[in-house]
Amino acid sequence: xxxxxxxxxxxxxxxxxxxxxxxxxxxxxxxxxxxxxxxxxxxxxxxxxxxxxxxxxxxxxxxxxxxxxxxxxxxxxxxxxxxxxxxxxxxxxxxxxxxxxxxxxxxxxxxxxxxxxxxxxxxxxxxxxxxxxxxxxxxxxxxxxxxxxxxxxxxxxxxxxxxxxxxxxxxxxxxxxx
Length: 178
Known about the structure:
About 4% of the residues have low confidence. It is extended, with a radius of gyration of 35 Å. With 178 residues, it is mostly helical. A three-stranded antiparallel sheet has the order 1-3-2. The protein has a domain of 80 residues: Orthogonal Bundle (Multidrug-efflux Transporter Regulator, Chain: A, Domain 2). It is 40% helix and 4% strand. A hairpin with a 5-residue loop joins strand 2 and strand 3. The termini are far apart.
């Protein structure tokens, strides 16, 4: 009987690739770094909104370090963990949502909650001082350069009528003398 080959080839983990310290990478360099063909990178750009390389003046894709890291993460999800493209997209979206929903605390995590009490009291005092400062500051209103608006019926007409004393009708019969 013939032996079966594994579906996925053995690849080093995503963190194993050494990313050089450069500002921009061309698509060929990213292709070599990540061991992924350039056409796959272009396809992933259309499938993953997080992957948006900058296009230079010549139209060539210029990847930043975070783009290369995103490519390595996508590759790991697809090739190593076996996700489909929609599944990998969902995983990345939930990871991003978790990162943005958690705000860093000003209080460092300690094993003893009593150690955080002085920090909390100092923060409470700063908040009260800020509130007092904001409530004592004068409120400045913005005044309009123009006067108050009026409706069209109350505005004087731009055209002057014959009964207006400032109206100066043209003199002469309209015929020129020769």
